[in-house]
User: Fold this.
Amino acid sequence: MTATAVRTGALLIHGLGGTQFDLGVMHKALLRAGVEIHSITLPGHGGQPEDLIPVRAEQWLDAVTALYQELRPQYQELHVIGMCMGALLATALCQRVQHTAGKLVTLAPPIYIDGWSTPWYSQLRHLFYLIPGVASRMRVEEGEPFGIKNALVRAVVKAKFARGDNFHYAWVPLACVRQVDRLRQWVMDGATAITCPTLIVHAREDELTSLKSAEFLQQHIPDARTVILEDSYHMICVDNDRELVAASVLTFFGFDAPPPRPPRRARGVVPAADADE
Assistant:
């Protein structure tokens, strides 16, 4: 590294029930650009779904804050990137620490849980929260389309769930969805306090969270820009637009990004468990 080179790091935050593989292509894309990446396993993750039952949103936010504070002195630039619930945590982190050392990237941020596959009765969860013990016993199952539009990738992910591969929980307790709801409210209440440039990447066909989420952040974060994807569902880092996601993030960070390649539909890829090329 030359004397004038800037040491750049990135903190990557996965989604609810997920792992670092939620970020798919982002790992290799950032490494190729010379960015040092740091992933976190959030409290309650990396074990069994039941481990999430006692975890509170404060523990997730404290965990990412502690890692951020450890990393911050090591870099001239430190970017924060989050996927799904990780996008909420990334935003809440930047609110909390008044992040100005780098940029913020929110990938499929679920400010609203109102996508096309969300059943009308999902709002009844707020009633179940009030009944002692119910939210701890109720399961929210992962199911088709698993947030993935690409049929081949979706088939691979479905097979991995069937085998019990430890890349994502097959279900999460309703109790931790309540914590996500609390986190959503924190982000909504504090979005105007974000002081760093922010990129919002969101799929038009996201089955979990509609474009209202991207529009909310665009309207409330002072320095924000949005990329809308036209060929993906929720898991945008592993779906058809994954190359466009990576290129958009690299460009936002000021790196030269190769033009996105067309998605490989003719053969299976495994970006959700084996880092994509």
Remarks:
- The first strand starts at residue 8 and ends at 13.
- The chain has one domain: 8-252.
